[in-house]
Amino acid sequence: MADDARTNRLGAYLKARRGLVTPEQAGIPGGGVRRVPGLRREEVAMLAGISSDYYLRLERGRDTHPSSQVLDALARVLRLDETERRYLHDLAEPRPRPRRRHTPPERVPPRLHHLLDAVGVPAFVEGRAFDVLAANDLATALSPRLRPGQNRLRSLLLDPEEQAFQKDWTASAAGFVAAFREQAGAHADDPRVVELVGELSLASGRFRELWARHDVRVLEGGTTTMVHPVVGELRLHRDKLPVDGVILVLYYADAGSDSAEKLALLASLAGSPAEP
Questions:
Q1: What is the bridge-based pairing of β-strands 246-252 and 232-243?
Q2: Residue 3's pLDDT is what?
Q3: Phi and psi dihedrals of 228, rounded to 5?
Q4: Which of 6, 82, 102, 122 is the most exposed place for a label (fewest CB within 10 A)?
Q5: Quick one: where's region Disordered (predicted)?
Q6: 195 or 185: which leads in pLDDT
């Protein structure tokens, strides 16, 4: 993360988000040549009902404690959804914490290792920066990138095999980067977060583009489509369950579906029993 973005996260977020709102979306005539994409500072201020000077102080980090009413007005002008609005409030109202808090290492509880061995679906444990901390054999059979020591975000952005594995790689990449920013919000100074942002900023142009947008999203359960090199297309549901500071992730198919049969084939190839 650049130093100014790390020390003035509220201002960086406001600047990035106003660049994504067109004058037409805000109800402002867009005629004439505009030097910047999106809304000008004075336009945001006018629409939010605050002075241009005050908004400039917010964006430049000279005032970092706007009221909740001002934040909600800015969220409305910038067309933020509920997740983005909460993120904006968190930037302006950070939770108190010790100056140099030590981030404890992420550990997988022993019971999760037992669960991974017992559950009959692809399952793995991930950390706050999408590091894979543990996985069962069926998860590794689903994707070799789902093994301890791998990082899901790095694989998605830098590994051509993972990109081919995701049927809609463009949407997956955007969603993961937005979820990473949301998760990193409370750990902005975590050395692992800083390291990963630095690595991906140097290695991936797509990451730089997405990171500059400041999108935030909660990556929860859902349904995704993967293209496995052996069994072909799989439509799987995904659940993410928090357990003692880590996340248990499970993939499973609808009972009796074509994808369920393909998972059973993968399990037989991996030597693991699949869930009936």
A1: antiparallel
A2: 44
A3: -85, 140
A4: 102
A5: 89-109
A6: 195
Averaged confidence pLDDT in the chain: 88
* Structural domain boundaries in the chain: 3-92, 110-270
Q: What is the pLDDT of residue 251?
A: 96
Q: How far apart are CA 64 and CA 48, in angstroms?
A: 17
End-to-end CA, the chain: 46
What is the token pair recorded at 224? 């995704």
Q: Are strands 123-126 and 132-135 parallel, antiparallel or unpaired?
A: antiparallel
Beta strand ranges found along the chain (DSSP E): 123-126, 132-135, 222-228, 232-243, 246-252
pLDDT at 63: 85
Q: What CATH number should be reported for the domain whose range is 110-270? A: 3.30.450.180
Write down the pLDDT at residue 2.
Answer: 47
Q: Which two tokens stand for residue 249?
A: 């992730």
Task: Provide DSSP, 34-81.
Answer: -SSSS--HHHHHHHHTS-HHHHHHHHTTS-----HHHHHHHHHHTT--
Please tell me the least confidently modeled range out of 58-72, 79-93, 180-194, 200-214: 180-194
